[in-house]
Amino acid sequence: MRVLVDARESYRNKTGIGTVARNLCLRLGRQSGYVCLPADYQLREPASSLYRSLPRLLLNLVRHVLWKQLYLPAKMLTTGAHVLFCPDPVGPLWTQGKVVVTVHDLIFFRYPKEVNRWWGLYWRTVLPLCLRRADSIIAISEATKQQLNSILGIRQEKVTVAYDGYDSQLFYRIADIEALRFVHAKYKLPERFILFVGSIERRRNIETLLRAVAYLRDKQGLTLPIVIAGGRTNHASHLESVILEQGLQDQVVWLGYVPDEDLPLLYNVATMYVYPSIAEGFGLTMLEAMACGCPVICSNVDSLPEVAGEACILLSPTDTEGFAGAIRRVWMDTTLAQTMREKGLAQAQRFSWENMAEIVAHVCEEI
Questions:
Q1: 153 lies in the same domain as 183
Q2: Domain identity same for 186 and 161
Q3: DSSP per residue, 263-284
């Protein structure tokens, strides 16, 4: 069997789908018969900022279409490959051989105003065609699998769930006091703080976190620092206006993109991790936080309860006062925080990139 693996997403995105693609390509590329394209994908450094001007967005769209619909089918023909695996949802509409694609979420359909207009139009037009053409589909959660059926009418038997994973060699409970002191000093972090990690997108609903912290300050006299780590996007300017409106300038620390080697240290020194997302395909950063022993408070939507298990506090993403109350409890109650750490560490053990790659390989062999 010869399988081509589309590795382009591994360097188009620093986080999200890019993280999934890099980890799957790395593991599948080691197996006999699997070939990643382009071959030098590991040498290509993805941009740390997700901000894109309109001309850049349109150029990226054209490149994406040419790669998917012309280059990959041509490589299937010239190499005689039996299967093409895409770690993202878009595959060729016509090609020789079988096609397996990966669906992370259906946010483009469910929340069209939350995404870029041009990319949203492209995905809503092309994705249904690609999914019907695909011979098999990987969904990264049961919630996504159900949405594929309810929104796009994809048959359940065509979809296999393969959860995202995390790198256990990178994300774990760190006991090295000097390393923890180093990250505090490097980023000038408060002694205790609330952490958010992820691209600064509207659907991540950071605004609820900001308003919850402002509520605790105004109603209960608690001044809690927030540290935000993630690549800036076109939505960042709106968040800055919310911070000014709520008078949180002295409580919010913007770190921008944080290198992979520093991220586990951030999770380890944070008092808690708060993730109020309104729509999520998986929730990779909350899994990483749990693997590092950081208590997690998150939304109760989509796949997040699947990832959280019984380890996290789950709330409606619109419940600002609920988030405020949960944040106060974890901040004040050390026994609760320790219990959440222990449950989170145990829950994280259920997920790994090796498991995901094994399921993907099995699907490729099966078709």
A1: no
A2: no
A3: HHHHHHH-SEEEE--SS-S--H
